[in-house]
UniProtKB/TrEMBL annotation, chains A, B:
Sequence ranges assigned to domain HTH tetR-type in this UniProt record: 3-63
DNA-binding region extent: 26-45
Membrane-spanning intervals of the chain: none
InterPro entries given in the database record: DNA-bd_HTH_TetR-type_CS, Homeodomain-like_sf, HTH-type_Tx_Regulator, HTH_TetR, Tet_transcr_reg_TetR-rel_C_sf
Protein name (database record): TetR/AcrR family transcriptional regulator
GO molecular function: DNA binding
Gene3D superfamilies for this protein: Homeodomain-like, Tetracycline Repressor, domain 2
Keywords of this entry: DNA-binding, Repressor
SUPFAM superfamilies: Homeodomain-like, Tetracyclin repressor-like, C-terminal domain
Keyword Transport among UniProt keywords: no
Pfam name, any one: TetR_N
Provenance organism: Peribacillus saganii
Length: 191, 191
DNA sequence: GAGTGACCAATTTGTTCATCTGGTCATTTT
DNA sequence: AAAATGACCAGATGAACAAATTGGTCACTC
């Protein structure tokens, strides 16, 4: 085995998905980019969807690493959540692949893409959930449903970063951090 | 004038929009339901979009009334916000018209519908914003950007009521009230 | 003059058919 | 023999054209 054909195919597919999206990427195109016969792809992947799935799986792994790197044990729970979420969402924003994915989800609604996007979201929630559980155990935050709390954290973050931007001037990183702390940790109540 | 033709048309249009959505409602259909010549509609409304707009305007008015009715000066700010929001979202859920609207927005993305949905949302935020401003003045809550806070309140509420339901068992009224209080007022922080 | 529906331009919808694409497998290459 | 391949096929897709529908107008009626 002179070259790793599977990796060749994965790279080619990632490249094409990033550039043209899931639907507009043909298996022939992937084969051509990978310098591989079309049939060869099917010796490694059952079908187009599985090939796609494997790339997403990879993405999830990288995102987790990003998040993990951003965590600093000396900082508070809320500070770490903020840092991790910020990095995660920035990661999404910076990677052509995720941008194309989100775009295709909204504009075309390709089922396979829809499924993967929710999968990624579920993974993020699951990841935060773990951190929430630890924080509760450590007594860093109040008792609460970890999954629901993780879910709300993500939602609040997305609202602050993406939704607010749609009709208002974007918030900067510091503002987002402060607002996240205000709304989720300190609360609006004065006491 | 034996009958109020304008009202007749508005009722007919509301009925048809509720049943079939904006796009699938034809002016001929409205005319037929209203027992009116098609041309007559155009003596009251410039075009289909304006007719639609007037019905939405009406909806907003009714929603405001609903909210206003639910407010009790003896209760705390957060309690009132919760009562108003709950009533508002329940109203949305209960009215075929709003359901069809939301459905059409997601499934077809009819531009006129998209515009109206954001208009309704903007109105809700603006309404909450006023209440937030008063609460800040009265010292009932911390100082914060009233519009952003109103925006976040709505987002958090929608997340609790609609988004969470998509993949989990729905929260009941009491749970929503408590969670809303936890996340937005008390905060996750223990101190 | 308020009300109307036949009429028209423009858009939408339905249909057809040539092209394309995911996936297979007999054949070739290593 | 195992791995790789691309010609091949059934079904999906979409471009192009035709037919039907619809928003909006206006000459005419009551």
């Amino acid at each position: 085995m002179a070259v790793n054909r599977k990796k060749l195919i994965l790279d080619a597919a990632a490249k094409s998905f990033s550039q043209f999206g899931y639907k507009a990427t043909t298996m022939e195109q992937v084969a051509k980019i990978a310098n591989v016969g079309k049939g060869t792809i099917y010796t490694f992947f059952t079908n187009k969807e599985e090939l796609f799935g494997e790339i997403v799986q990879n993405l999830i792994f990288e995102m987790k690493q990003e998040a993990e790197e951003s965590i600093d044990v000396n900082l508070s729970f809320y500070e770490n959540v903020h840092r991790a979420l910020y990095r995660l969402l920035k990661y999404r924003l910076e990677h052509q692949f995720t941008i194309k994915l989100l775009q295709e989800e909204k504009e075309i609604g390709t089922p396979a893409v829809l499924e993967m996007v929710s999968k990624v979201e579920a993974e993020i929630v699951s990841y935060i959930k773990e951190k929430v559980e630890i924080a509760i155990e450590k007594g860093e935050i109040r008792k609460c449903d970890p999954e629901l709390t993780a879910f709300m954290m993500l939602k609040i973050y997305i609202a602050l970063i993406f939704d607010w931007e749609k009709r208002h001037k974007p918030l900067n990183k510091k503002e987002i951090a402060e607002l996240f702390q205000l709304y989720l940790f300190k609360g609006l109540s004065k006491f």
